[in-house]
Design goal:
heterodimer, A: two-stranded antiparallel ribbon, B: mainly alpha, 2 domains, 12 helices
């Protein structure tokens, strides 16, 4: 692996990030989306978060584990309850990590 | 003369708005920090030199795309494959940019370019909540910029610590879970309406079923199916209440 290859790889990852994050912004008003798509975009935040969190929590090293032995999954479900009860992000992250470490210590 | 006019309370200044953005991002710090730290450690552990890892972190600022590119770089894969992989892993950001686009449409193109580039999951969700709940808030862009820059700083500091101190950071602690929990904390309050909850459940199921798809395409599929399902639920609901 030489310098040219590594720098090219780094710049290409950066370019890919720029293209995906900014190209619609650059098109601006010129791009009109169908009304149904615009309407569906309201649900994008929740659906993106749900999809990311689910695959992070349900899989351990690429193996699906929906059992009570999956400490990450239990911690994630505990975090939902803490968030709905306290509305505090600090409590959710702290409480979830505490559940996770406790379960691993007990296991 | 002035006493005859109703006194209008002064709105927030641009500075107030930026500070509010920072303040509303800060509670997510443990999650953002842990995710940056783990990404930094992973880059060095994959064999990428410290100088290159720093460059990748500071230039790309894209955790999941960086992690997806690492094994390819380590095996000297073709450059087009690295580009394509980073592009596909980042596809959710196209949807993000479509969501926040109206908020930036009035700005000069170079500001839209970099405001789009510094988006992160946390500030994206916060900004969409602001657009929905306070559509008349005067300095939305300053709010977003403040929070997004704070997000950038927290993530970069953590990532740099991870890169420089990779050998000293215990990976067995499962710190990256804190990043996921921050997303869970953002998600839970959004799901208190039926269409959103239904969409989120659909996204969860499809994302889990699609986990074996390459390039994290299961995430994108889950997100799109979830959005479509939420739309269906929303359209079905008024009809259902008329029928009853």
């Amino acid at each position: 692996m030489n310098d040219v290859y590594l720098w090219s790889a780094i710049l290409l990852v950066t370019l890919a990030t720029l293209v995906t994050r900014s190209s619609l912004h650059l098109l601006g008003e010129r791009l009109r989306l169908p009304a149904s798509v615009e309407s569906a975009l309201r649900f994008a935040p929740a659906c993106a978060l749900a999809a990311i969190a689910a695959s992070d929590l349900a899989y351990t090293q690429n193996v699906l584990d929906l059992s009570l032995d999956n400490a990450r999954l239990i911690a994630g479900l505990g975090a939902v309850a803490i968030q709905l009860g306290t509305r505090s992000m600090a409590a959710t992250i702290g409480g979830g990590m505490a559940i996770y470490w406790l379960l691993r210590w007990l296991a | 003369m002035s006493s005859s006019r109703p006194s209008v309370p002064p709105g927030p200044s641009r500075r107030d708005a930026a500070l509010r953005g920072v303040r509303e991002l800060l509670p997510a710090t443990p999650g953002i920090f842990a995710w940056g730290l783990v990404t930094g450690v992973a880059m060095v552990k994959s064999g990428l030199g410290v100088d290159y890892a720093l460059a990748l972190s500071l230039l790309a600022y894209a955790g999941s795309a960086q992690l997806a590119a690492l094994p390819l770089i380590a095996t000297a894969a073709p450059l087009w494959l690295i580009f394509l992989t980073a592009l596909v892993v980042n596809l959710r950001f196209i949807v993000y940019s479509a969501v926040v686009r109206p908020g930036f449409a009035h700005l000069h193109w170079n500001r839209r370019l970099w405001l789009g580039f510094i988006v992160g999951d946390v500030m994206f969700v916060r900004f969409t909540s602001l657009m929905r709940d306070e559509p008349d808030y005067p300095h939305k862009v300053a709010y977003y910029t403040g929070g997004a820059i704070a997000n950038w700083i927290i993530w970069q500091v953590a990532s740099i610590i991870g890169i420089v101190a990779a050998g000293q950071i215990p990976t067995a602690w499962g710190l990256e879970l804190a990043g996921t929990l921050a997303l869970v904390a953002l998600l839970a309050p959004l799901c208190l309406q039926v269409p959103v909850l239904g969409g989120a459940v659909a996204a969860v199921i499809v994302s889990i079923l699609g986990h074996s798809l390459p390039l994290r395409l299961g995430l994108l599929l889950g997100m799109v199916v979830g959005m479509a399902f939420a739309m269906l639920l929303e359209r079905a609901r008024p009809a259902a209440s008329e029928a009853s």
